Amino acid sequence: MRNRKDHDPDCCCRRIRGDGRRMTPPRHAVLDALSERGEHLTAEEVFKKASRRCPNIGLATVYRTLELLTGLGLVSKFDTGDDKARYEFADPAGEKGHHHHLVCSGCGKIVDYKDFIGEEMELLHKTEQGLSKKYGFKIKSHIIQFFGLCPDCGR
Amino acid sequence: MRNRKDHDPDCCCRRIRGDGRRMTPPRHAVLDALSERGEHLTAEEVFKKASRRCPNIGLATVYRTLELLTGLGLVSKFDTGDDKARYEFADPAGEKGHHHHLVCSGCGKIVDYKDFIGEEMELLHKTEQGLSKKYGFKIKSHIIQFFGLCPDCGR
DNA sequence: TGTACTATTGAGAATAGTTCTCATTAAGTA
DNA sequence: TACTTAATGAGAACTATTCTCAATAGTACA
Q: How does pLDDT run across B110-133, given as a tens digit for each residue?
């Protein structure tokens, strides 16, 4: 599991290089920092990791790059309630790789689960359609997250 | 719908007065500010409303009171992605009044819906049990939210 | 391969929501 | 009514994030 690259670097580069955008060492470093599966890094953590490959990268660049990647749909940004945004590579659309998060309110540990994803996705889809019809919203995304105490924190 | 008090003031006061805590004018003012159903106020908005009843209430007191009420489970705190916490009276546990949120990414409008709550709650419950068993978490709460564009923002 | 255009960068200042500090006030109790 | 100490208001402090701006360096094209 460790060190398994979870994204296709070529694909990301291709997406980044679009509309006149450029591929740069700092952007490579950020992609690299994010590439470990199962990580849920804060901007600060991405900054630290990226600094290894690109020693004088600036924090602002990390934020800018994460914003870019999020905008392109390559990365998803989420929040587990500790007032720090977290980032991970987005699950390829509509794929079986989709997952949700289970968060420990004690230590902040984040568990990726896909155990009930089938049913959850089905219901979410149905709900989206229903809400869309009733309230006229064009639904783009959802958040579903569980909070509790992990075995270590649960006493 | 307007001005309908959605919480039982006596119950709240009783809960606040516990463990040596005291009932004070600022706390009344915050309860009052929150009392309108269907509102999703930021701390700043609670502050403004509460200031009408308690003109020299401080913003810090509003935050402290909201934290207290949240801790007591009387109020729930959530976030619609604009980096400002929002607060509303908590739905009485296990009651049919429970609702979720549909958020417009354009204008920030928040729609409370309960249309699919039955099924959602059932699945959430089942998922909670499954996750609890598999990962050993004691699950306390969940977040489920949909994002999209409302009729006005959807062009 | 060299040059020009301009997207991107790093550094630090600026911003905004929230929390903390501390001297003062006042709720609840006896 | 007096006492204990929880709660308060004001503003400073904190923290994640965004902005500013001059300097740098991808990329396209000659």
A: 999 988 888 888 999 999 999 999
